[in-house]
Amino acid sequence: MSNLATSGPAVAAAPAVATGEDTPLRRLRFFIAFLRARPSFAVGYAIVAVVCLVALFAPWLAPYGPMTADPSVYLLPPDGSHVLGTDGAGMDIFSRVVFAPRVDLTIAIVGTFLSAMTGGAVVGYYEGQRAWRRAISTLVMRSADVLQAFPVFVFAIALVAVFGQSVKSIILAIAFVNTPIYLRLMRIQVLSISKLRYVEAAHVAGASDIAILQRHVIPNSLAPLLAQLSVNIGWAVLLTAGLSFVGAGVVAPTPEWGSMIAMGFQNIVTGQWWPSVFPGIALCVTVLGFALVGSSVEILADPVRRRVLSGSLS
Predict the structure, then answer these.
(1) I need a labelling partner for 310 at 20 to 30 A (CA). Which of 130, 216, 248, 263 fits?
(2) Residue 238 falls within a domain, yes or no?
(3) What is d(CA 63, CA 52) in angstroms, rounded to the nearest whole number?
(4) Which residue range(s) make up the domain with 196?
(5) How many domains does the structure of the chain reveal?
C-alpha cells in the first residue's frame, strides 16, 4: 500500500511495543471497540467462528451419518425427524451440511496457505540488485503473468484433470492458481519497504539479506497479505464447491457443499428445493463471513489506519 512507502509508520509503530504500551489487554479492548463501531465485521467474525465450531463438533451435532442413505425416506421435506429434509439418495441434509465444512475448509485453508508461502518477498527484495538476481525476479513475474492469463476456474479444472480427481489435487490446484496473486502482492510491498531508511541502515550495518528480510521487510509487509488470506480462503471454498458442482472436485457422496448442490439442483423444477438450497445458503454465508473478516484484517494490520481508528474510538 502507498501508506507504507514512507518510513514514518514503520518507525512509529515500534516504540509502542518497545515501551510496553501495546499490551495484549489493550489490544483486546481496542478490538472489542472496533467490532462495536463496525457491526458488520463482528458479523463476519461470528460467521467464521460458527462455521469452524460446526466443523469441529459435527460428529456430535449431526443426528445421522453424513453418508448414511435410507431409500425409504428419499426427498423427504424438512420435518421433525429430518430438520432440513433428505436428498435423492435418502441422506440427511442437515448432517451433510454440518460435515461439509470439514472438507471445504481443509481444502481452502491448506491450499491458500500453500499459495501464500511463495517467494514474493525474495522476488521484490532482489528486484533492484545485481543483474542475475533481477533476471530471476523478472522470469518469475513473467511466469506469473502467463498463469494469470488463463481463466482461474478453467485452469483449476485442467489441473485437477492432470493430477487426478482427489482432495490433494484440489488443494494443489487452489495453491497453483492463487500463487500469482501473492507473488505480485508481496513484490509490491517489499519493493516499497526495501527502499526505506531503516532497511538501508540495516544493510549498511552489515546485516545479511536473510536477516533483513526476516526482521524488517517481511513483518512490515504482512498487512495486505493477511487481508488477502482471509478473502482467498472464502474464495477457495467457493472454487472447491464450483469444481465439485461440475464433477471435477470432491467425489460424491463425500459431504461437500458443491456436490450437494449438484446432486439436488435437478429436483428444483419438480418442487424439491431443499437438497440444493440449504447447502447453497451455507456456502454463501461462509464466503460472506470470510470476506468481512478479510476487510477487517486489512484495517487492523495496517499501522496507519489502526492509529487513525484508535484515535476515533478513544
Answers:
(1) 216
(2) yes
(3) 19
(4) 38-58+101-313
(5) 1
